[in-house]
Prior knowledge:
Distance between the termini of chain B: 37 Å
Oligomer: heterodimer
Amino acid sequence: QKEVEQNSGPLSVPEGAIASLNCTYSDRGSQSFFWYRQYSGKSPELIMFIYSNGDKEDGRFTAQLNKASQYVSLLIRDSQPSDSATYLCAVYSGGFKTIFGAGTRLFVKA
Amino acid sequence: KAGVTQTPRYLIKTRGQQVTLSCSPISGHRSVSWYQQTPGQGLQFLFEYFSETQRNKGNFPGRFSGRQFSNSRSEMNVSTLELGDSALYLCASHTGRGNTEAFFGQGTRLTVV
């Protein structure tokens, strides 16, 4: 079992819709959870982080964490073609090592 | 505030050679992590350095090594290159003060032929 799992996609949504990206992790002691966006040919950039159970909203983005289910998700409201990218889920469980999922490719159709 | 600087951006090497990649973190950041990114495997953790000390290492062979200097700049070295080492090598800068948000450089694209 991989430590951090994501559906590779591609996830295709129409412009203006809600995109829902999901991630599961195996270490129950995980402390911090991150979502990075990576455009093709570019490096990842941090868009959200969450430490506590529940929801965290930042503009059109909402991160959701459920530690009991070992599940973290990212919702993108009013999706735009510029949101088309690969979204990486990352989990920190201590030991100065952050584990990344393989990423979900999102395609927003205009 | 300058971002994370990785050099060189592109490299082409032949099998058996060695290569050294450089990373300068954000000013004031004392922690640097290195990752290998390939299409099939995603980002794989190589190692993390803080104040010139390696605090963790991923599951890579001993051909992969790194170091950090007193100014927080870091280098990674790959010896006896193999075709499978072709990848994007990313450096991430962290404050090192407990939080783990990563700020990535543009990466070094290594091609081994």
